[in-house]
Amino acid sequence: MLGGGLCFLRVKASRCREAVVASMARRALKLVSLAAASSGFYLYSSKYLDPNDFGAVRVGRAVATTAVITYDYLTSLRSVPYGSQEYAYLKSQVHLRSAERLRDLCCANRGTFIKVGQHLGALDYLLPEEYTRTLKVLHSQAPQSSMQEIEQVIREDLGKEIKELFVSFEDTPLGAASLAQVHKAVLQDGRTVAVKVQHPKVQAQSSRDILLMEILLLTVKQIFPDFEFMWLVDEAKKNLPLELDFLNEGRNAEKVSHMLKDFDFLKISRNLGKLYSEMIFVNGFVHCDPHPGNVLVRKCPATGKAHIILLDHGLYQVLTEKFRLDYCRLWQSLIKADMKRVQKYSRRLGAGDLYPLFACMLTARSWDSVNRGIDRSPVTANEDVEIRTNAAAYLPQISQLLNNVPRQMLLLLKTNDLLRGIESALHTRASASSFLNMSRCCIRAVSTYQRSKSHSLYRKAKISLLEALSLWQINLHELFLRLKGSRLGNWVIAFLSRMHHSPY
């Protein structure tokens, strides 16, 4: 009887959830119908009005999409045995359908929705592959504003017409992103510039869009209690105003330009990681949106050297000194495979008893690889599959962890994932050189902090000497790796091997 009662309760609960979803869908359809009826006259009378600008249309579309996705998950898997091959296949299909619906919603509502969709597309450690693969296209499919809209924004913000400000202004943008697009122009003094123009209405719509997302996520959580994504809304509330403030972006660009003025890069594949190690571990001022559209590489005509160009300086994370140093020491421990210190500094960064999961999320490596040493072997296809499988299995624990760690960590996790995506494309992911660069920056950061806290000249000299020795050891190890990978190095190794096995 007890088993039958539980079965009845489950069915009843499932039907209640389905009723809630059906109610959401009906309300969404009413909103869409109301929006169409109330806005039809305006759309007919003005060719410049866009139905996406009407709040009821945007809300109705978002509610309807959420309801359809939720209903799909509730109904498509209930009649299939959990854990069976059929269940796994159907679940993958539901993931794919839902991801495509979410992508279409982001493209239709634009602005804030595309920005959040881009963030979701970078969560390889948290979301199924069907979602991340589908949503990654949002980095290259941002909508463009018309020239009439661009002229209106410039007129409203600067109080002048384009022809009064620029000698020339190209109609076709060089690139378009979720919040703005960039046009090539020439100033009155002859300088060629890139003009970043915010999409119209994004600023006004952003706060309403975030509130809508918050309400929808809270509703979904009532249906699926293990669904923990409120941290994503909290991040959007904090970061979007910064990204929409172009004066803040200008200040960030000037600061990072001064901070990294001594960098003269030769190879993109080695030095992108070096650039970010410098920002994270040494300076604590981090560009947090390094997706492929924001990282350009060009060959300098004068020198022939490859240069890295970072775009979009709206979103930076400022790391506190305590957080930065704990993060430095954690990565040093991970590189050395010192599990006691990994546990210690993971706990200090808010991971608690979930420190093994935290280490795997930071490194995108399996727990076995973390224990062996993440610099000992490259990532394999089997390990990638294992990581994705574990991410799906431990979704509640991952969500709990993301709610517990400092807010600074959330943007760093996103940044790490975006960098790993670029490194994978360049075939430099988890390379020895990236770990060596991280080690150098960690050593410099910790030594600088120790010297600042010491009042003894002897102690400062000792710290500096130990720092120099540690950096020298890393340089020597890097030289050995380069020789080992070269023809000369292979010849020397082969010669020494023959000498060792020679009977004489």
Please report the number of helical segments: 21
Tell me about the largest β-sheet: 4 strands, antiparallel
SS-based class: alpha+beta
Task: Based on Cα principal axes, name the global outline.
Answer: globular
How do the helices and strands follow one another from N- to C-terminus?
HHHHHHHEEEEHHHHEEEEHHHHHHHHHH
The helix content, as a percent range, equals 55-70%
Task: Give the gist of this structure.
This protein has 21 helices and 8 strands. The protein has helices at 2-45, 55-76, 85-109, 112-121, 129-135, 147-158, 162-165, 202-223, 230-243, 246-259, 268-283, 321-336, 339-348, 355-363, 367-372, 381-393, 395-404, 407-425, 432-453, 457-485, 487-501, and strands at 166-169, 175-176, 180-187, 192-198, 285-287, 295-299, 306-310, 316-318. Strands 1, 2, 3 and 4 form a 4-stranded antiparallel beta sheet that branches. The chain has a two-stranded antiparallel sheet with strand order 5-8. A two-stranded antiparallel sheet has the order 6-7.
